[in-house]
Request: fold
Amino acid sequence: MIIVTGASKGIGRAICERLINNKIQVLGLARDTSNLNFPSMNCDISNPDEIKKVYQKIKTDGSVVTGLINAAGIASMNLALTTPTSTSYKIIQTNLLGTIYCCQIFAPLMLRRKFGKIINFSTIAVSLGLKGESIYAASKSGVETFSHIFAREVSDFNITVNCIAPGPINTGLLNGVSSNQINSIVSQQIITKQFTVDSICDVVEVILDDKSQSLSGMVFKIGGA
Reply:
């Protein structure tokens, strides 16, 4: 079974649906799972106590966890000087600490079996240094650093840890972003086109493939930077 956070919409939901289509068992986590038709649990990943409840349920059920995909995240495109403190806190708490919490709590389910694939989500804004995304990019830069070092820490247990860093993908995170802003970001990519959630799912499939066991500590930048 693969645990996927942020499963109620956007990239997380698309990943769940792709995995299910490939006959892979998933457990989707989201703050509201009422609209999902696959196995799921309500969980706010910014709260470690809620993650621990999921962990206990998995242990009780005896499910075998082979992967974790941390797709949950929030964004606020705003200059640092005009970003409310409460917004900065939510971004760091969800994107960075939420990812760390999930890795800390769920990785032991893979350690015992000495196998696992962990995929965390960053953003191409880290590499491009996009104006107006300093706090969001900072949270994701932390995810990249954490993932790189965590990959070393769990490598002896045959667990790989990688990051996917998408460019602008047409999901709810782009609400309020103008087409001109999107085009400006895309123009800075190596491949100057806007990719879709299907492109993200394709990369997820590659990382999860048994033939990709040599890949760890990597950041896969969708569109290139």
Q: What stands out?
A: Helices lie at 10-21, 48-61, 85-111, 125-128, 134-154, 179-187, 197-208. The chain has seven helices and seven strands.
